[in-house]
Amino acid sequence: IRLDHESQAMVGAAVHPDGTQIAALCVDRKIRLFNAKTGESLKSWDFPRKLHHFIPHPLDYTPDGKHLAVT
């Protein structure tokens, strides 16, 4: 799938437990949410921490899909 975003490298990603969404953490310190089927950008928000570029930052949804964690 091709994700519709502003050409920012991703340092982490997670698939929602129901398979409908993909969350991605990008080097511009934004978390982006995408439709997993179409790749359409659904939402984005700022990540409050400084990122170490090109070092993976694991993302994961809670099993119920209500929360997204970044480490």
Outline: globular
- Mean pLDDT, as a whole number? 82
Q: How far apart are the first and last residues' alpha carbons, in Å? A: 25 Å
Question: What strand order characterises the main sheet?
Answer: 1-2-3-4
Describe the structure.
The model has no long low-confidence stretch (mean pLDDT about 80). About 0% of the residues lie in helices and about 40% in strands. By secondary structure, the protein is an all-beta fold. β1 (about 10-15) and β2 (about 20-25) form a beta hairpin.
Question: Brief overview, please?
Answer:
The chain is mostly beta strands and 71 residues long.
List the helices and strands and how they pair.
Blueprint: E1 10-15, E2 21-26, E3 30-35, E4 41-46, E5 59-61, E6 68-70
Antiparallel strand pairs: 1-2, 2-3, 3-4, 5-6
Keywords:
42% strand; 6 strands; 71 residues; globular; mainly beta
